[in-house]
Predict the 3D structure of the following.
Amino acid sequence: MENILEIKSLRKEYKGFTLKDVSFQLPYGYIMGLIGPNGAGKTTTIKLVMNLLRKNSGEIKIFGKDNLEHEVEVKSRIGFVYDTPHFYEHLTLKQMKSIIAPFYKNWDEVMFRKYIDEFDLPLTKKIKTLSRGMQMKYALVMALSHHADLIIMDEPTSGLDPVFRRELLDILSGLIQDEKKSILFSTHVTSDLERIADYITFIHKGELIFSRSKDEIFEEYGIVKGGKELLNEENKKFFSGVQVHKFGFEALTVNLQEARRKFKNGDGVVIEKASLEDIMFFTGKNQTRR
């Protein structure tokens, strides 16, 4: 069994939105970034994986097992960090832990205390008195303290200061040194994924654009910048998204090597590797134009 998570032809229909037969796989021992604009279907996908929503069709396997038929067993091995932590706000951190810990047979009190100290969290304070950042830290502690094999995170760095964001990324990178563990990480902060992700899955308007290794993406996607005189009908077909401005244009290509043959650096042309943010932006412009 090579994949910790397998999603095949996953479909969820709402009024005005459909997640359209999405398929991807996350191997053991890797981090996958899940990207896309607001409303793309990222959170819907995560909720379907966690069985917080009912799918219309498709298949979800976690640890090789159907996520519905083996829900209790599967969830006991997942650490889930949602964008807005759902805890009883009138309880202290210690009291909340006492409620959650018994649900996990692999709960590790030593590890819990280690992360509480490392994140400088006050066990005797009520959850409602904590900042959003501290609540996210606590949610992460709870996810890590039962030796979860799959960590699923939906916008975990939102509201966190840059220092802790970097600490969090280091912790996540350290986790997958155990090649039996993997992380699915949805975020708008694409620079975080550029630093730690091995795979990127891009969803736009409910459709899967790609699910590929980060290295392959950065080898193949590029940005071409040049004067408007280069933007003829033939060249437009070569690009996957174009932005025209006062002084020229910027465009996304999915064939960086061919772009370097077709357009020469210099002569008013600049060719660069695309960032994940570039890819999201220009893909959105291309689909809007269609």
